[in-house]
Automatic annotation (TrEMBL):
Name of protein: Acyl-coenzyme A dehydrogenase
Domain Acyl-CoA dehydrogenase C-terminal bacterial-type intervals: 472-756
EC number(s) reported in the record: 1.3.8.7, 1.3.8.8
Organism of provenance: Shewanella scandinavica
Record-linked SUPFAM superfamilies: Acyl-CoA dehydrogenase C-terminal domain-like (SSF47203), Acyl-CoA dehydrogenase NM domain-like (SSF56645)
Positions of the Acyl-CoA dehydrogenase/oxidase C-terminal domain: 318-451
Annotated NCBIfam families: PRK09463.1 (NF007000), PRK13026.1 (NF009586)
Domain (Acyl-CoA dehydrogenase/oxidase N-terminal): residue spans on this chain: 84-191
Amino acid sequence: MLTIIILALIAIVVLFAVKNIRMQFITRPVFSFFKKVLPPLSDTEREAMEAGDVWWEGELFRGNPNWNTLHSYGKPTLSAEEKDFIDNQVMTALTMIDDFDIVHNRKDLPPELWEYFKKEGFFALIIPKKFGGKAFSAYANSTIVSKLASRSVSAAVTVMVPNSLGPGELLTHYGTSEQKERWLPALAKGDEIPCFALTGPEAGSDAGAIPDVGIVCRDTFNGEEMLGLKLTWDKRYITLAPVATVLGLAFQMRDPEGLLGDKKNLGITCALIPTDHPGVVIGRRHNPLGMAFMNGTTQGKEVFIPLDWIIGGPEFAGKGWRMLVECLSAGRGISLPALATASGHMATKTTTAYSYVRHQFGMAIGQFEGVQEALARIIANTYQLEAARRLTTTGIDLKVKPSVVTAIAKYHMTELGRSVMNDAMDIQSGKGIQLGPKNYLGHPYMSNPISITVEGANILTRSLMIFGQGATRCHPYVLAEMEAAAMENQHEALERFDALLMGHMGYATRNAFSALFSALSGSRFGSAPVSGETKQYYKDMSRISSALALMTDLSMLIMGGDLKRKEMLSARMGDVLSQLYLGSATLKLFEDNGRQQDDLPAVRYVMANRLHLATKALEYTIRNFPSRPVAWLLRGLIFPLGNHFTAPSDKMATDLVGGMLKPGPARERITFLCPEFEGDKGGIAEVEQAFVAQYACKDIYKKLKKAQRAGELPAKVPNLVLFAKALETGVITADEEQKLQHADKLRLAAINVNDFEAL
């Protein structure tokens, strides 16, 4: 028997170690199989993959994250100039905002706010300083948009769009010198208002399928015959279009007469066109869920433009898709996540305050466990939103283009924003549904689906983009193997594939053993870059990373190109990657904040949820895996002892809420994007002042409760009567009665809502 085992081992060693034998019996058959199951890539898919960079998500995808790399990225900070702008210009802008008036009366920003935004450079945050811009960091850009969004989504979107996907960004990265000199200074000063037209009736999330066309031809422009384009387009959902003076346009460029060369279909191209150019039509305005930011349509039919109006000049003809993907990924990681994070900061600030000052059944509603359950989700999701905002903008500021990370940020952060607003509405109830100047929840709640929908619908972002791009871009071997399979020289292709295959097999084997060993040992022997309570979270995430890498390899092996069509499966595997990314962001925020002990309740709750959701996604993928033998193998390797990661406990929720129903540094760290200021017209300062005043009286209220239990004071009387009786009986002093009366006046103002003449 021993002889047979030894001979078998020798045969295996020879099979893999002797190249000629390996090539004949392993590499050639696998190469042939790989080419058959290789998922077909369209040109737009290939360009999208090549356009993005692999960043931290690559570490998470490969089964053995280097956590020191995560910590090495540094803490995002504001420069002195950025901080000064936020402390002064942004705060001044906030005092000029009356969102109820903007949305319900004007249907637009007031003229003085438009002028202030232009004059102070709010539309120039990303434009280089040499052209009159601010050249602010992604973190600063995000912070500015978030603070504006804490008071008005309409104002925030108006500032957000020129500093996201649009002419300014495209010109900065790709424009010719002449285009930059012509447009960027005017855009920086607000003399020109930009919009970018990509979406149309037949092309939404599938932006690569735009039917709008530009035909290369000769025509006359300014009395001179020249080579140019005749453009025909029909676009909708274009933010700022109704007020834009310059239109960025994406279209399919064609050269049927071969005026530029042999290629007839050049592909997606981007051009810049003044809106007063003959033939340009700025159409009717949309009404995006009642919000007041400008959004509308634009059309044109056979509009002739010179070739040098192509962004980047004629040599960038057909390169528009790659340009858009690169710029879109940055905007997707800054703008929409900023809106979601603002919702979290505002909801946490106001809902913790409201839960303290709103009383029912003789006690603050924040003391009811049912309310605490929803309140804990709000607080934890806000901590998560802030963590993801910081890590994602850190990547962008490192000058990488992390397309998978920004897809994760866009999808999960807007969904977390939706969850936060739903819970805040449930807790504040009547206060939230009665629209008026004092209502700070209504407009963010109503506008939330806008973020869910734009820059790629969330359903498709989750089911097609996150894992679809991540599996190929982040895998250490698959993209290189695909490139080898596409090589024309078959001998060179086979040689290249052989080297990759050996590495791939070792990689897959390591991940299988790592997943199994970590599962059996409870990840006790994994490495972590820190000590203390958060140490185990790093180990558990490394275990899940190995499981994801193993599952990805087996999924691609079994399903091949069909994996693209198994959207529910690929979405769940994308969820695993996403939860690992969000968990990484949470742990990094805890480190960046200096490991504050009062942050630990939020970290515990968030990380329990991240690990629970990640392993639940793994479990559901195994349950629905098309090959049952492979599913059994995966379950045996990943969950040999079962899945013991559970949702956050009730104690985690009550501990988290208990620490947030009082003023303090932990609460300030996840509400600072919703600042207080004198003259706040939106009700936020009102409820915060009531909260602070009520909390300052907590010891006086304890005296009243004690006296009521002893029968010295009546139990159920109006507050002012109770205060007077307490003073009369000597339970409290005159000074304490004055404090109670002041706090109660603020409380009543905070819980009251607006009313109007009969409508």
